[in-house]
Design brief:
Number of strands: 10
Oligomer: single chain
Order of helices and strands: EEEEEEEEEHE
Strand order of the largest sheet: 2-10-9-4-5-6
C-alpha cells in the first residue's frame, strides 16, 4: 500500500522559511516523478514544484528563486524548502506521485486523493 505523509508546515512570519517533508512507504520515490501542489483557501489546487526521475526540477513562476524541491533517495523522502515566504503562500501543501495525473483533476470536486497535506500559514 502506497502511503505519503507530509509534515513540516506551520505558522511563520513573512520572509521566514519552512522545510516540508513527505515520507513515502510502499513505493520508491526515485522511480517516479513527484511534485508538491498546494491549495489556498477558496482556490483550486496548483502545481508548485516537480522533480523527475532524473532529478530534473521545475517550478511555478510564483515560487521560482524562493522554493527548492529535492529528494533523499536513501530516506525515500521528498522535500520542499520554502524561503522568503509570503502571505500568499498560505495554503495546504500536498506531495503527489505522478503530477500529470493529479493535474488532470484540478478543480474536480469529486477527486479526493490529495492526501492529508500539511498546513502552511504565513502571517504577520
Amino acid at each position: 500500500q502506497v502511503q505519503l505523509v507530509e509534515s513540516g508546515g506551520g505558522l511563520v512570519h513573512p520572509g521566514e522559511s519552512l522545510l516540508l517533508s513527505c515520507v513515502a512507504s510502499g513505493i520508491t520515490l526515485s522511480s517516479n516523478p513527484m511534485a508538491w501542489f498546494r491549495q489556498a483557501p477558496g482556490k483550486q489546487h496548483e502545481l508548485v514544484a516537480s522533480i523527475g526521475t532524473e532529478g530534473n526540477t521545475d517550478y511555478a513562476d510564483f515560487v521560482k528563486g524562493r522554493f527548492s524541491i529535492s529528494r533523499d533517495d536513501a530516506k525515500n523522502t521528498l522535500y520542499l524548502q520554502m524561503n522568503s515566504l509570503k502571505p500568499e503562500d498560505t495554503a495546504v501543501y500536498y506531495c503527489v506521485i505522478d503530477p500529470d495525473y493529479y493535474s488532470e483533476y484540478i478543480g474536480d470536486p469529486h477527486f479526493n486523493s490529495w492526501g492529508q497535506g500539511t498546513q502552511v500559514t504565513v502571517s504577520a
